[in-house]
Amino acid sequence: MKLFLRDQWAFAVFFLVQLILLLLIIALDGYWNESLMIYAVFLSVFFAGAFMVVRYLTHRSIYQRLSNPVQSLEELTQTHGNAAICRALDETFLEHYRLYKEQLHAYENKQRDYTTFIQQWVHQMKTPISVIHLLLQNEDDPTAESVREEVDRIKRGLETVLYIARLDRFEQDFLVEPVTLHSLAQNVLAENKRLFIRNQVYPELKVDGQWRVESDDKWLSFVLTQMLTNAVRYSAGKSNKVTIRAYELGPNVALEVQDYGIGIPLEDIRRVFQPYFTGENGRKYPESTGMGLYLVKEICGRLHHGVELESEVGVGTTVRVIMSAVLPTLQDRKKAES
Amino acid sequence: MSTIMIVEDDPKINQLLQSQLEKYGYHTVNVEHFDRVMDVFTEVHPDLVLLDVNLPKFDGFYWCRQMRQESNCPILFISARDSKMDQVMALENGADDYITKPFDYDVVMAKIRSQLRRAYGLYAPQEGERTVEVAGLKLFLERMELSIHENKVELSKKEALLLEALMNQYPRVVSRERLLEKLWDEQFVDENTLNVYITRVRGKLKDMGLEGAVETVRGSGYRLKAVWEDGQ
């Protein structure tokens, strides 16, 4: 309404000026009939008013549309009425919408192609790594050991790339089912045994065999691997133990990895979950990518798990994932206790 | 002797798998023309198939379906693809197990043995029985037994693993890291536990009259020494 009035006031003023001009011409010509004049004014104003009202009614949708901000792209495709200007406007909007969509699709395709490419490339790289891995398996001299170490690093790097690429299509690639924490932790530890041995850090597993949670086995393994890699990296040379434990936390189960390493400075703690953030420790340990904890947070968010981090410089760091327990777990436990 | 067919388009992996399998007494057949996988399959009637997913022309899932129409033999997928969907697809198409690259020989061998056992009940000790021998000292890995001449001694699993590593590398030194890695399967093993196992192995060797057969090399690891040869 406001926009309509603002749009039309010039016309109204013009109309009134013209009316007065007309009356003046007639009056100055010496023809002065008061009642006729009033009648003429009334008639013109009435018809002009009626015209304005009709105009407002037929074009109302346009004025409303123009004065309210667009909420979604789809609003652009709605039609607004039959008046010529409405149809023209609709057509323009549709054209804009089409162009915009086209560009968006082009980018979407590009992005998808890129993700597919990355995934394929990672898989291609896995073949040479497999070959190196197999060739080295029966070797036991220091050079072979050193190459094995590097192969492990490449493997971990590729794994991370793959998981980041997959994150975009997370919805198609996860399956929530009961996961037994003990065997999950055991598998992750076995997969990363060389990392532990090389850094002379040993895991302490305090996970009850019966704890089961609602989660995705593969993604949760990746999360735990990231947590352990961090814990081992920041323990090396300072402490030789990393503790993995699971316990009841209200209606949930917490799975935590605690290290007794260098810890994270207070001013960095807030930001450790941001991508590419490496902080002070990152400068000391050139292998930090700043992606580990970001991915942990991201993946846990999508699995509907909570993440917490506590740390003190010189004392160590604890990263905790909080998951909802599979009900029988808690009930069995209560039963066993009573 | 079991025949194992390998369908893998990377020549190096193919060749490495082949030599590893042959070392353990399996007969292997590989595929050279990937449009004629089924011809080879019907011709040799393998007891087990190792199948890659990414292959030229048709993928592994396709060949798996084809094979299933003719035979019930165990089919193991070997693939770099490790998404849940791929594993589900493989099982849906009739595979028995799925191994992701890069893999360890140990894992592949263990899975092959278990599939063969399940399918044909091959418990016969000769079938793929792994033995390691160093100058008359014989280690039977399936039975976990160590023998020299008429002398025999039973071993625990970890002890057998330790000896296997030492004997395989004979006469070279095996690093502590390598031994820790070998011992660490389900339960992790720390330095102290390794010391305990080394002591036990030494004890058992001593029972057989082989004192000093496991030599400590300062700063690097352990080495097997054929002390029994000097005496004779």
Automatic annotation (TrEMBL), chain A:
Location in or out of the cell: Cell membrane
Transmembrane segments: 9-32, 38-57
Catalytic activity: ATP + protein L-histidine = ADP + protein N-phospho-L-histidine
SMART domains xrefs: HATPase_c, HisKA
InterPro entries membership: BphY/WalK/GraS-like, HATPase_C_sf, HATPase_dom, His_kinase_dom, HisK_dim/P_dom, HisK_dim/P_sf, Sig_transdc_His_kin-like_C
Membrane topology: Multi-pass membrane protein
CDD domains: HisKA
EC number, UniProt record: 2.7.13.3
Keywords from the named record: ATP-binding, Cell membrane, Kinase, Membrane, Nucleotide-binding, Phosphoprotein, Transferase, Transmembrane, Transmembrane helix, Two-component regulatory system
Family matches, as SUPFAM superfamilies: ATPase domain of HSP90 chaperone/DNA topoisomerase II/histidine kinase (SSF55874), Homodimeric domain of signal transducing histidine kinase (SSF47384)
Gene3D superfamilies: Histidine kinase-like ATPase, C-terminal domain
Protein name: histidine kinase
Organism: Brevibacillus choshinensis
TrEMBL record, chain B:
Domain Response regulatory: 3-116
UniProt superkingdom: Bacteria
Post-translational modification 4-aspartylphosphate, affected residues: D52
Keywords in alphabetical order: DNA-binding, Phosphoprotein, Transcription, Transcription regulation, Two-component regulatory system
Record-annotated DNA-binding residue ranges: 129-226
UniProt domain OmpR/PhoB-type: residue ranges: 129-226
Xref: InterPro entries: CheY-like_superfamily (IPR011006), OmpR/PhoB-type_DNA-bd (IPR001867), Sig_transdc_resp-reg_C-effctor (IPR016032), Sig_transdc_resp-reg_receiver (IPR001789), WalR-like (IPR039420), WH-like_DNA-bd_sf (IPR036388)
Keyword Transcription among record annotations: yes
PANTHER family assigned: REGULATOR OF RPOS, TRANSCRIPTIONAL REGULATORY PROTEIN YXDJ
Protein name per its UniProtKB record: Transcriptional regulator
Organism in which the protein naturally occurs: Brevibacillus choshinensis
